[in-house]
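Dock S-adenosylmethionine; give full complex structure.
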Amino acid sequence: MHKKRNYRQRVKEDSSSDEELSSAQPLDSTASKLTTLSFDDALESDIAFIPRAPMAKPSQNKSTHTTNFEVNESKQEDLPELEGADSRMTLKPTENRGYAVFAGATVTAGQTLLKEAPYGAVIDEENLTKYCSSCFKSSSQPLSRCSLCKQLYYCSKQCQANDWKQYHSIECPAFTKIGKPVPTAIRCLTRILISRANAPVSYNRVENLASHKDVVPEKVKMKYAQLIMALKQIVPAKIMPNANDAMDLICRFTVNTMSILGSDYASIGVGLYTNVCRLNHSCWPNCVLAFEGKTATLRTIRDIAPSEEMCISYIDVMDPYPMRQERLYSQYYFKCQCELCIHTQDVDIRNALRCSRANCTGPVRYPDELESSDNYNETCTVCMTPVSLKLSDIHERYTRVSQILDLAGSLIKKDGARALLNLENCIRIGDNLLHPCHHILVRARQQIKDIAIDLKDWDKAYSTTKQLFDLYQSIYPKNSPMTAIESLVIAKMYSHIYPDHTWKSREHYVQALKLLEIGYDPQSSMIRSVRDELRKLEAEQAFQLHQQTR
Ligand SMILES: C[S@@+](CC[C@H](N)C(=O)[O-])C[C@H]1O[C@@H](n2cnc3c(N)ncnc32)[C@H](O)[C@@H]1O
């Protein structure tokens, strides 16, 4: 009760001060075309431009060309710096990739180079009930909901009070008035604008970031203009920028915002981090981001030589070359020329046929669209065994496999068991034709694992996780958190299925910890919880030994 009364009082104070505010600036030419759109249309415009790590569906636009991104010479005098970064990191302008971060000295694998709190961050819509909107941590207890807007959830009174003070007292009245979920991008932009209002000087860190405003297609700018309309309904007029500045912000937001990842490496929210976002992309990166709540931690996953560029991956590199290029261009406006893209343009395990020889894991080039004859003859890239197939048969089987995967995707929430049957069928048909690392088969296995866990079919979940672990070793760079997480899942499942096999469980946990310690900071809750588990297993082992020797 007490909390409720306090909130109401504060909201009242907040909205009464709003009435004295000046109105926002007029919209620019693109935005003004959209003034006739309803707020609902604008709310619908929570477009998929926010970087999502895994499982993102690429759009159909096939154009990929390079936009050389030179650093504006006139801005050289105010060269940005990396705040709070390890002294071995240097930010330098490049000819065609804007600024880039380079190693100033040798950096070995498994080092923390930077920890950064976001300029603005929010939990995404699907995860609002599962993660605290203030500390971004999950809790074993149900979270409490803001009793006014009924949209944000918190793990404690302290978190709720902190969030209220920093952000929510400003956004809550608008959320309450709207009375329906406010999309992720709009909530995040609102928080960025609140941070700007609280510390206007620090906003130059955002204004310095890449925006690509000059190459953003008009169609996309129209969507951004819709977002501006929606934002104006939420952000108090006194802190709402004019339409041009809002457009600049949205362009920067699109190019620089990161997915915030939970402990299973799935996206739980989004945030703008003005230092870590300076790292350019590589599909075969030498650095990764891990998150502790909403604090981003940059880690090296392999040794980096002096002057070598430090890169993270913006996308899930499970996707084959054309999909990655399309995604990177449509969101970030560049053509990736990393070592993976250069080496796998022709034969990519993520989009290859399988070798017909038993036990050979060599990929066979997938026929391209120019193939004219129905007889497709290729050789395995590893054992050179000739492969002869009918093109029509390849296309027919491929289409079937992708259709079944789509069907299973639509069934997952409604009927897990039926989705599982379809996915297993997809694997049966696909396994004879496609390379095991083919992205369709990997996606199908990921979904089988998730459904099996939901259905508590531990044997299936365990065997599928082991398969995924093996496949990830070829798909992702060495020491990638994706592989490390899978190793931890194997350890957890093993000790669940075989509670008495303490020795073997311990071995699994040791292997997982070894991998996790590269991508995660030693102080992170992830590492601490695995160490705790190991301690418990060691105590159990000691007890068992003691029992045996008595
Ligand atoms: C998050 S920002 C990275 C930092 C940026 N280079 C800067 O100057 O602030 C993303 C932008 O950097 C550029 N970029 C990132 N990775 C790149 C790459 N591998 N090749 C070319 N440009 C890249 C693209 O212009 C992209 O839109």
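Observed: Residues 69, 97-100, 209-210, 212, 255-256, 277-278, 280-282, 332-334, 336 surround S-adenosylmethionine (CB under 6 Å).
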